[in-house]
Input
Amino acid sequence: MAGTMPHAIFVETGLDGGATVAAYAAELPGCAAFADGDSEAVAAIPRRVLHFSEWLRRNDEAAPAFVGDNWYEVERAACDGTPLGRAAFSLDELPPSEEEWQRWLRWLELAREELAEAIDRAGLERLSGDPGMKAIAEQDEALARVLGGQASAAVTEPIDRLYAARDALLEALESGGASADGARRALRLAIADDLRLADRLRGDQG
Output
């Protein structure tokens, strides 16, 4: 029966200089809804979960079946606007199984492919004015360093920097493995932010 099975949502406030709130589906790392307020972000999660699950299946990835539509907030935290200041939640501290970890790494690669396709279609004129690319690159670089990875090569061209930073983060995640401190959080943020920027470049709602 709908509404009988609860599903957890984590809420991050303070994004985009305080203008945006993110809601994350705890059972799907990287599945997030972004809105002007917390109630709007939380309310958008059921539809976002549906779209995220469909996206996984289109890419031959298994998606969990959700029983009921009872999504509720269990935890919230604020980001401080810096590359390492994104919200962390209690679930981020729990290392996944090796099977889960490898699956989520594939999701990260799929999210970056989704973003790359959106970048190709958007064109340089639109990309030049979008702050999301720089923000993702700076965050990936910072997360890679925290995870013990090597700094990405010094690149100034925005698209090349974005890809170099993600390569550095992916290498750090693969090297550190599922039990590395901060790895689960880094992966959750990277997937969510890539898909958010891809949606925006396509003109979709985040």
